[in-house]
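1-aminocyclopropane-1-carboxylate synthase 1: structure, please.
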Amino acid sequence: MGLEEVEINCLLGNAGLLCWMDLCSLLKEPTFEDEMALWNVIIKEVKLNVSPGSSFHCVEPGWLRVCFTNMDDATIEVALRRICGSDQERRGTIEE
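Here you go.
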């Protein structure tokens, strides 16, 4: 499962060991304060180490950077499942 399958857009790149995820749709309000709140949820509850775009002077809130430098394929799969599961839960599409 990839990010596109759960409608999470990423910036296309031609090199590098990171990915910029567009999680703007998960913000309650399009503010950097809400970006930091989302980042806290991802760090503390989803248990993924991502970086908020505001740390890199992004002009639009909701972009988070994922670095996959030291991840093997199995770890990337776990990270994708966590991101996708968290995204679906926040959007209310997971059945309980």
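Notes: The mean pLDDT is 80.
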